[in-house]
């Protein structure tokens, strides 16, 4: 937030990041639902008692926890509330040193910011092959007069366009 000159722009960027995190949370919830649907439709039996989950007989202790573990962890909070809390935690965290690698930082902090790390991975990591091939197209025989600074700026614009 320190690098935004205009407070409205900073708030708009923050809002957009929250929206992207909500999308990631909803995707994960849908994946968990589909997994639990597959798990719940398959008849299972307890290895200790041999009682089927579909049976009218009472569950044993292990079966109860298995059902609870399958449930979505976000039942009590909305995806938006979870995303806002995660973005707020991220903003209040220490700033990344300039010489640090953002990719390494996100790998180390994945468990603190699981949804934001997915957003970062999708939107801010540009595969080097694409950059390399685009630079090959940019620096051609027809464009030999481009300065290295101009090439850097053009590559930055190309890799960050939306």
Automatic annotation (TrEMBL):
InterPro entries: HATC_C_dom (IPR008906). Transmembrane segments: none annotated. Residues 35-52 have a biased composition (Low complexity). Pfam families: Dimer_Tnp_hAT (PF05699). One of its GO terms (molecular function) is protein dimerization activity. Residues 86-159 form the HAT C-terminal dimerisation domain. Residues 32-53 are annotated as: Disordered. This is (apollo) hypothetical protein. It comes from Parnassius apollo (Apollo butterfly).
